[in-house]
Amino acid sequence: MSGELLANAKLGAGETVRWMDPAGPLVISFVAGARPGHYRLRHADEIIVDILHDRQIVTQVRAGLSQTTLDHFLADQVLPRAKAHSGDFVLHAGAVRVDDEAILLMGASGRGKSTLVTSLDSAGLALLGDDAMVISCLDDRPRTKAVYPSLRLLPDSIAALFSESWTTTKVAHYSSKRRIDVPRPNVGSIDSVAIAAIFIIAEPVADAPINLRRMTVPQACITFVENSFALDPSDTSRAADRLAAASALARRVPTFELSYPRDYGQLAKVREHILDRVKTEWPA
Q1: Same domain, 25 and 142
Q2: pTM for the full model?
Q3: For 119, which of 17, 111, 259, 267 could close a Cys bridge (C-beta 3.0–4.6 Å)?
């Protein structure tokens, strides 16, 4: 962490930085003192959230900060990390439901994960979530459930994917994404769903065709670890648990690297490739 970023974080007495998001202003620190297991998450100088050992969550916000922004930070950063610290394996992924199985989609920020999830949902595959998914294992079959239901897109994706005018709301003042209010099942009440396949969205290559490549178990495992939530990434014991969970998931679920042109007109063909591969892996 640079000296400038540390200064902006305005750490309090007893705080030790555990992790800083390289892509944003999130800083996670451990707070030494009378309360064991006390962690603090900061979003710049606007939001401070304390997570205590008894799972109590205490928030402080800058005067005038919108409830929308606070809710987004709690849902996107605090809740998934708190669940991971409690022992869940939580992936930064979106998911849709095909019959009684789920398809997971993952990718670095800006790769089009939410756009592809929305495209699949609009084609009749029920949305489970577009950001954080809890992975569990029942009867040796990995299963998934959304941490919370969500659907958020950039304005250009909304214009391209929705022919009607849907109600949207701001996600947060620091994000240009919009939350989409579209009719869909109450996915929060759906039990965990068996995972049929996982697709990792690759960086687009100009003029390249749609391509699916089966990933090796080690490749998939590393990708899962890189895209998992953690409250304290420096905690070696919990890191070992995440690695074990990622390895088990990689061994049991077929995982593919997906590359395709970032052209909205190609999304129908991308959906066909995904569904054809799922049918191949899990024939009816």
Answers
A1: no
A2: 0.88
A3: 267
The parent domain of residue 25 ranges over 3-65
Number of helices and strands (H, E) in the chain?
8, 17
- The tokens for 262 are 């970032």
Q: How far is CA 66 from CA 72, 140, 171, 173, in A?
A: 10, 44, 10, 8
My answer on whether 96 and 161 are in the same domain is yes
Asked if residue 125 belongs to a domain, the reply is yes
The answer to whether 79 and 147 are in contact (CB under 8 A) is yes
Tokens of 26: 């999130």
Tokens read off for 260: 């395709």
235 phi, psi to nearest 5 deg = -75, 105
| Span 135-177, pLDDT tens digits | 998 778 899 999 987 777 677 777 777 766 667 778 777 787 8
Specify the 3-state DSSP secondary structure of 188: helix
Q: pLDDT per residue over 209-230, tens digit each?
A: 899 999 999 999 999 999 999 9
Distance CA 220, CA 241 (A): 16
